[in-house]
Amino acid sequence: MLKVEDLEVRYGPIHALKRVSMTVGKSEIVTVVGANGAGKSSLLKAIVGAVKSSSGKIIFEEKVVNGLTAPDRVKSGLILVPEGRQIFVSMTVEENLLIGAYSQHSSQQRQAIESIFDRFKNLADRRYQLASVLSGGEQQMLAIGRAMVARPKLLMLDEPSLGLSPILVRQLFELIEELNSEGISILIVEQNTKLALKTAQRGYVLELGSVRQQGLASELAGDKGLANAYLGDSV
To answer: Are 62 and 105 a contacting pair, CB within 8 Å?
Structure first.
């Protein structure tokens, strides 16, 4: 479904990604792990078009999307839930969902939004309230709901568990598995490497902008040398 070939991203003199190659298959969960500053968020932003790559190819459903704008990539089914949620706190819950559904026809918008309220009862109870009153967990559900109404084929999540309690983190990853069972491919960048590798089928380890290791998530999780070198104490 997604193929990244020799992707490079630069921020002035900073070389954030160095010839990164990776794939995500249809209905697959893939995780990208590594230390802070490894280039994980830059990878997701480059795929969705939020930052420009300096070289390399991003191929989605057998089409090179490098030349597409970020809105056009969203319309194609590439959807990112950004780090920190980035919901609009001065707008209502329903208005946030409407923004996610902007590319749908009006009849499809209402159907998509109601499906989110059916899935997330807490959001349904607060649909006319400002997003600023939501708890951290509810805000993350809203961010995911906003992504879902855009009808993703590949859902990318950047540090989705950040700031959540252990109970909410477990619920979040149960939701990720549920969405995947419905046919959505998922790419996760996650600080909780143990849980990310437990949830994913395959994984990539980034270090200083380069892929240092890749393979089955279960094999990466069991590699003690790799854990000590790249993944930190959370494994």
So the answer is: no
